[in-house]
Amino acid sequence: MKNHLIGLLTKKGQEVVKGMTVESLLHREYISQIEELSATDKKRLMLVSRQFDEMAQPKQIDRIKSPQCAYDIMSPVLRGKKQEEFHVLL
User: Which of 30, 39, 41, 83 minimizes the number of CB atoms within 10 Å of its CB?
Assistant: First the structure.
């Protein structure tokens, strides 16, 4: 995940964020404060951050019909978590 995220950046941007966590790289306030990043690199990180936020938004679902349906709903929410979580879908 982190390698894919860093791969979106320019060579200079990759050097700037070397050693940073994924959470830091996707935190919008933190991104805007990194003066060494170019405007292009900041824009790319902001777009990815927004996409993650959109994927994490709860969706209105009529009915869960299969394990695959539950996976499709919950995988964006749980992907990338460092600690196991328990969720109940009603």
Answer: 83
Q: By CB neighbour count within 10 A (0-12 exposed, 13-18 middle, 19+ buried), where does 9 fall?
A: buried
Confidence of residue 15 (pLDDT cuts 50, 70, 90): very high
pLDDT number for residue 10: 92
Q: Which amino acid is at 31?
A: I
Contact (Cβ atoms closer than 8 angstroms) between residue 51 and residue 80: no
User: Cα separation of 47 and 28, whole Å?
Assistant: 10
Residue 56: both structure tokens together: 């994490």
Residue 12 burial by CB count (10 A; 0-12/13-18/19+): exposed, middle or buried? exposed
